[in-house]
Amino acid sequence: MRQVILLMTILITFISCNKDDNSTTIADKPSEQKTVNLTIDGNTRNFIVYLPTGYNNAGKMPMIFAIHGGSGTPEGMINIANFKTIADRDKVVLVYPAGIQNNWNDGRPTTPNQLGINDVSFFNQMCDYMIANNSVDGTKIYATGISNGGFMSSRLGCELSNRIAAIAVDAATIEATTIATSCNPGRPVPAIYIHGTTDPLVPFTGGQMTAGGTAGGTVLSHFQAIDKWVTINGCNSTPTVTDLPDIANDGTTIKQRVYSGGTNGSEVVSYVILNGGHTWPQGYQYLNEAIIGKTSQDMNACEVIWTFFKRFKRQ
User: Fold this and answer.
1) How many CA atoms lie less than 13 Å away from 297 in the CB half-sphere?
2) Radius of gyration of the chain from its Cα atoms, rounded to whole angstroms
3) How is the chain split into domains, by residue range?
4) Are the CB atoms for 238 and 203 separated by under 8 Å?
5) Which CA distances in Å does 308 have to 214, 229, 301, 313?
6) Closest by alpha carbon to 152, among 130, 179, 128?
7) How many Cα atoms occupy the beta-carbon half-sphere of 12 within 13 Å?
8) Reduced to 3 states, what is the DSSP secondary structure of residue 39?
């Protein structure tokens, strides 16, 4: 009898230890942020990776590239467009990459463009790295950015549609002379374009860029960019138009146009911000309003973009 009791005690202890071990194994890990360095075409490139809380138990996760503007940094982009709350809530991997000399080769005569930097290859190799080293779903990789980063997102939609499932472009359109004219992705790319009508750096009506540095270049207007993607994606040319609630009374209002019915369910959405500047809606006012214009508080761009992205995966 004493032996039976002893055996039962040992068994209970063993089971209890196993329970403790299992609970340790399955516990959600805290979020993790790290900088990764890669050598691409002989250049040392780097990007910040944010892994959300519980990433160890989340399975294959979607991933968002959040791309800084000209003269910006990954850290600055985190401040302007902080997707971390969304990442933790919905288990999304974030990648904030750094451009050569803080700029991107988006097709305009930026410094990386003049140096012949292949930024499309950089993004392709970041995809390879993230899929190989993290639990990333390769069919759910998205790109968004502001200004120079927005133009770069457009270029990725045009030239890296084998990796990028959808794009969201803020305070930018598409470079007109080389990128837009050759844009012919191999699959539909759902797209959002957000643009302020009084953007002092990237003209809402398109044409030659003359303000905001020396990059210059010729760019499509907001609606030319919309029409480009509506055609590529085979969407209905007549949109559903909605005036978003003026919740902030900040001197801006937003009109949404949804072009639906595209190939494989793709969609294009225009957000025109009346009196909006070169800014990220509800994002950080990174320069004085006199320089970059108003930041609309009438919508949360990060939430709007993620709500759009998560509806699509690369077919």
Assistant:
1) 6
2) 23
3) 31-309
4) no
5) 33, 15, 11, 11
6) 179
7) 6
8) strand
Are the C-beta atoms of residues 125 and 79 closer than 8 Å to each other?
no
d(C-alpha 178, C-alpha 135), whole Å? 35
| The two structure tokens encoding residue 78 | 């985190």
Structure tokens at 26: 């399955």
Q: Tally Cβ neighbours within 10 Å of residue 2.
A: 6
> Which are the contacts of 229, defined by CB distance < 8 A and separation ≥ 6?
157, 189, 191, 193, 235, 268
Q: Which two tokens stand for residue 257?
A: 């146009």
The CATH code of the domain at 31-309 is 3.40.50.1820
Distance of CA 88 to the CA centre of its chain: 16
**pTM to 2 decimal places:** 0.92
For 70, 209, 223, 298, the CA distances from 206, given in Å and listed in that order, are 18, 8, 9, 24
The CA distance from 134 to 146, in Å, is 26
The C-alpha atoms of residue 275 and residue 298 are separated, in whole angstroms, by 12
Amino acid sitting at position 90: D
The CA distance from 65 to 93, in Å, is 9
Q: Whole-angstrom Cα distance, residue 246 to residue 278?
A: 19
Task: At 101, list the tokens.
Answer: 């000399």
- 16-58 pLDDT per residue, tens: 444 444 444 589 999 999 999 999 999 999 999 999 999 999 9
Residue 273 neighbours by CB under 8 Å, 6+ apart: 194, 195, 196, 197, 252, 253, 254, 281, 296, 298
Report pLDDT for 9. 42
- Distant-in-sequence, close-in-space partners of 257: CB < 8 Å, separation ≥ 6: 226, 239, 240, 241, 242, 269, 270, 272
What three-state secondary structure class fits 17?
Answer: helix
Low-confidence residues of the chain: pLDDT under 70: 1-25, 211-214
